[in-house]
Amino acid sequence: MSIELLPSDFYGFEADLTEKEQGAVERLRAALAEMQPAVADHWHRDEFPIDIVTPLAQTGALGFNWEETREFENSAVFRGWLALEMGRADASIGTFAGVQNGLAQGSIGVCGSPEQRAEWLPKLASGEVIGAFGLTEPDSGSDASLGLSTSCRREGDEWVLNGAKRWIGNATWSDIVIIWARDEADDQVKGFIVKNDTPGFTTTKIENKIALRMVQNADITLTDVRVPDSMRLQGANSFKDTARVLKLTRAEVAWLSIGVMTGAYEAAVNYAKERKQFGKPIGQHQLVQEMLAKSLANITASIAMCTQVSRMLDEDRQGDAHSAMAKMFVTARMREVVAWSREICGGNGIVTDYQAARYFADAEALYSYEGTFQMNALIVGRAIIGKSAFA
């Protein structure tokens, strides 16, 4: 199969995908191009374009990682390219899919019983059911392994959940949320599939965001929420199991960040070819070309790193430090690229009529979620020194 590579894929990494994988990436790219005109409007209105869920599902972009849902055998590198494409279109689209795929489905795929997998994974993959992932709390983020305060206790065949969650993507309109809570009996973290209409479960949309405005983040309050034991993730018995889910998604956030810097870079290239100053397009000026060259180098280095760390995942060689380094490095490079892209667009770079501004704002959220730069650096540092520097 002969594919048309993105100009921003300077070393042609996409050509290394299998023919089926290349075809799936092309279908997703075409579908996202059709959705693109509506993105800025939804970003301004702080609303998620719910009507994109079905087209995403039809391209196979939802549910591609599980035996119960995937159309064909595929690689972690391929799944990374899908995340890249979604980030290239808009970070909020990629974040929605990351929650739906990696976190909600991932929790069930990694920790769920065969019956739970069979019931929920196909519904999540088709978009019939929207999922969310409830780990972060108002007072617990990076220290979730120790600081998680949402509680659960067993009463007969039910579990009673109490506590609060914050920054939970998709939660205002999802059907289910994976809630992680600490068992009062053994102090271990357990996971639950909680339906949003369960009595005592309430969500409040987080307003006034400057990044990922289309993502519907919510505060969640759980007050004596009763969940049957059949909805407890049967394979989630400690935070180590939660970490198994997070391991699947951290590198894909790095891939998503490549998409964001790619979208910003492409917007800057188009602007540099059209905008004229001093009698010629600004792309012909030396300093602009330098920023574009550095941006392309950042994109290329990031794809190379993520390609290798994804291969390691497929080969069961990826450790926490490997994915942490990818997330740390790529999001920092993304920050540089979106800043240069905004700078190339000058004053127009601060208005969302020009796409660079939207990528610039959204990058800040990706830099922080799924482990801050500093937390991921400490994970890598622990691997280097052999001793933890965590406070």
TrEMBL record:
SUPFAM superfamilies: Acyl-CoA dehydrogenase C-terminal domain-like, Acyl-CoA dehydrogenase NM domain-like. Residues 132-225 form the Acyl-CoA oxidase/dehydrogenase middle domain. The keyword Lipid metabolism does not apply. Pfam families: Acyl-CoA_dh_1, Acyl-CoA_dh_M, Acyl-CoA_dh_N. GO terms for molecular function: flavin adenine dinucleotide binding; glutaryl-CoA dehydrogenase activity. InterPro entries: ACX4-like (IPR045008), Acyl-CoA_DH_CS (IPR006089), Acyl-CoA_Oxase/DH_mid-dom (IPR006091), Acyl-CoA_Oxase/DH_mid-dom_sf (IPR046373), AcylCo_DH-like_C (IPR036250), AcylCo_DH/oxidase_C (IPR009075), AcylCoA_DH/ox_N (IPR013786), AcylCoA_DH/ox_N_sf (IPR037069). Residues 21-128 form the Acyl-CoA dehydrogenase/oxidase N-terminal domain. Its cofactor is FAD. This is Glutaryl-CoA dehydrogenase. It comes from Agrococcus casei LMG 22410.
